[in-house]
Amino acid sequence: MAVQVRLNWTENLQFVAGAEKGPAIVMDSKDGGSGPTPMELLLMGIAGCTGIDIVLILQKKRLELSKLEIRISGKQADKYPKRFTEIHIDYFLAGKNISSKAVEQAIKLSEEKYCSALASINAEFTHSYTIEKQKPS
Amino acid sequence: MAVQVRLNWTENLQFVAGAEKGPAIVMDSKDGGSGPTPMELLLMGIAGCTGIDIVLILQKKRLELSKLEIRISGKQADKYPKRFTEIHIDYFLAGKNISSKAVEQAIKLSEEKYCSALASINAEFTHSYTIEKQKPS
Prior knowledge:
2 copies of one chain form a homodimer. By secondary structure, chain A is an alpha+beta fold. Chain A contains 3 helices and 6 strands, in the order βββαββααβ. A 3-stranded antiparallel beta sheet of chain A has the order 1-2-3, with no helix packed on it. A 3-stranded mixed beta sheet of chain A has the order 4-5-6, covered by helices on one side. In chain A, helix 1 packs across helix 2. The longest helix of chain A is centred in the middle third of the chain and has 23 residues, at 38-60. Strand 1 (2-11) of chain A pairs antiparallel with strand 4 (64-76) of chain B.
């Protein structure tokens, strides 16, 4: 299995990136601000990977997820190369019959078994989650 | 130092992601195709990180870079969690007075000293580069 992307430098520290025939995104330095930074993209990849797992696992359990928000934060070492040392993932979910047990199982399965992005990162991971009450319809 | 992003699930396996007040991007599963996949985002982050280093280092050397394209590919393990095992970064550069020596130094400094994204990934890295002839102006 291989994944490939291509980046083209545009100006300053801005790049346009995309997979062959895939949709392109703009990335930039923090100061440039025209797109996510490289380190933000890493966190997005990790959160998106576990997010897809959570959606699929809860669907398989026939639970009706109505909301999934993921907030992820990474601490970097003080010294270069300033790698991520600690990453915290906070899940916010809502839906019919969504139980703590099901959510905990889904997070555990993703983080320990399925999530390729998380498994590719050399950092300490922690997580928390909140099951929100659904608004009455 | 902390980096933070937030993801919101939209439908199917599509998410919208962004930093607080930062530009948002769409990510999706391979089948969905409306945005890069999580594993593509990891590669984009790595390539963007080393790309920014290369631009800054060559600028510091007062070399006039006119083109920087980066192609990055990652091999994943066959078994779950299918983490990246090998990542290859291929640099294509052009510009006035861009020498092999300068490019090799810049890549080495980025990969071994500065690139936070690369240092956060648990995989074997290799690279290659091509200095392209500038079109006559």
